[in-house]
Amino acid sequence: MKLKLLLALSITLNIVTVSFLIALNASLKSPKASSPPSVLEVSNPSEASVRPESLAKVAKSSAVNWVQALRDSGISDKIIADVAAANFEDRWQKLAEENQKKFDSGEIDRATLTRFDLEHDTEQEKELRTELSEDAYHRWDQTRVLADFERTGVQLSDDESELLYTLRKELDRKRLDLDLARHDGKVKDTDAAAQSEAMYAQYNQQLLKVLGRDRYAQTQSGGDTGVGELKRNLQGINADDSQLAGMQTALQSWNAQRSELDAKLQEGSITADDYQKQLKTLETQRDQEYQNALGTNGFAAFQRNQDERYQTLQRIGTDVGFSDNDIDNLYASIQDYQNSVNDYRDRAQQLQDQGQTVDWAAVQKALDDYSHQTETALRDQLGDKFDKLKRSNVLPFDR
Description:
Shape: extended
Order of helices and strands: HHHHHHHHHHHHHHHH
Largest sheet: none
Number of strands: 0
Helix content: over 70%
Radius of gyration: 29 Å
């Protein structure tokens, strides 16, 4: 609700700004802005049906006059485009609400409502191209589309920016076509998932070719070296400067090796299975260097700090009535249980890989019994505190 309110306020302020700027320059400029476009063009409810034609439609914009008035007033194309986009979003949101009401009353079906959502980007592009001119829209949209590259700090030449913009727009078009085909029943969900994976793999290969390995790796990490997360996970461990430096060195080496591995996968020089195996090896090497820096106990605490389950236990510990030692001991018990389950499954899988027959139903039965026994023992030990933990989904038991 708060987000919608802020969006509404932003749109309102944009429109007020337009009116103010035009009025401010009215004494100096002869052109006058026309009235803002009508917000909605809703079909007659009595004519509604489950057909797509019964959807509320975006009103044809008459914004060209006020766009020109802003240009005559010296307002930049970027600001004009931002206001035009906000105006479109305002009207689209109202249409979405209107169509939701039609769906709730049975006038349109879910397929029709979903198709309306899928048409958002296409309709926005059509309108803004008309209002802003092709060149102005292109400049504004390119900045918007490539914003994630800007955030990562990747430096691009003008030619590279144009090429990446083309690649991204083509990816968006293919993704929309696939969504529409799946929506219309022309492509099965499983086939759509496979096509989507192949689509993104091709895009990443093209991205790697344009950027090269270093800049490609920078985009994949989002410009985040991981140092901030490393320091957060060291809170409460009291690592000294030399330990932190050792871990940062290990992290830097891990980032470089992982980036190299990512590039090999995109280039096709290694298979997906090889990638996973090598990635696991790199993670093991990194963790060993972390342990060398922190010691056995320090590394165990570091791993614990990264675990969402432990973080949840810490958050609810006070309400449940646990001390810090209680939380640590409970977490250790949960980890022992989880490790035992994983080891049992791994041993069964190893036997099957060696050609032996494995009764997987019996394996699952044994795991279910173990889960039930462990859960019962923990319930007896914790009493009513167990139920509070259970409701928090922090316990690993399937039962």
